[in-house]
């Protein structure tokens, strides 16, 4: 049985908080990009095989790609995130209300949930939603963690 839960929280996004949550959503892929881009750049600089090659110019792009995605996503969403975002969690869904949008995400529609130090990543199909931890008090965060462990959702670590 799923315990009764009714939690509300508010969070004002900034670029730095948005970036942290975006990088958490990328997970290990971000480090893979940094390492592969660094290795390509190192190989291109130390050998003559890549002189004046497009690979030499592509390697820095691989390294900065996660940062570029975070920045472009922020530019796209900053008008929506100008005011605080309100989150409401109950036994059946997550309700999110921002300045110009609102959404409902049913727990039954989730594929998995991943808990990070900055928030919870909620995966549903191809879409991923981030629920920021700072929107809730430490007691509420513990309640959310306990709820997600008993909810019919696969929790990743």
Summarize the structure.
InterPro entries: YcxB-like_C. The protein is α+β, with helices and mostly antiparallel strands and 157 residues long.
| N to C succession of SSEs | EHHHEEEEEEHE
The CATH architecture of the largest domain would be Roll
What is the CATH homologous superfamily assignment of the largest domain? Pleckstrin-homology domain (PH domain)/Phosphotyrosine-binding domain (PTB)
| Spatial arrangement of strands, main beta sheet | 1-2-3-4
Oligomer: single chain
InterPro entries: YcxB-like_C (IPR025588)
Organism: Actinoplanes derwentensis
Domain YcxB-like C-terminal: 92-148
Transmembrane segments: 31-50, 56-74
Topology readout:
Layout: E1 6-11, H1 15-26, H2 28-46, H3 54-77, E2 85-90, E3 93-97, E4 102-106, E5 112-115, E6 119-124, E7 127-132, H4 138-150, E8 154-156
Parallel strand pairs: 5-8
Antiparallel strand pairs: 1-2, 2-3, 3-4, 5-6, 6-7
Keywords: Membrane, Transmembrane, Transmembrane helix
Organism: Actinoplanes derwentensis
Pfam families: YcxB (PF14317)
């Amino acid at each position: 049985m799923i315990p009764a839960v009714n939690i509300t929280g508010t969070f004002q996004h900034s670029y730095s908080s948005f970036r942290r949550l975006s990088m958490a959503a990328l997970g290990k892929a971000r480090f893979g990009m940094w390492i592969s881009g660094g290795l390509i750049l190192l190989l291109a600089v130390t050998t003559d095989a890549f002189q004046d090659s497009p690979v030499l110019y592509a390697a820095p792009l691989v390294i900065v790609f996660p940062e570029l995605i975070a920045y472009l996503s922020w530019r796209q969403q900053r008008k929506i995130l100008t005011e605080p975002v309100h989150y409401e969690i109950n036994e059946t869904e997550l309700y999110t209300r921002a300045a110009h949008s609102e959404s409902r995400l049913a727990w039954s529609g989730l594929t998995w949930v991943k808990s990070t130090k900055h928030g919870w990543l909620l995966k549903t199909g191809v879409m991923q939603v981030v629920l920021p931890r700072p929107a809730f008090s430490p007691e509420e965060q513990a309640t959310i963690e306990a709820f997600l462990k008993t909810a019919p959702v696969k929790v990743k670590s």
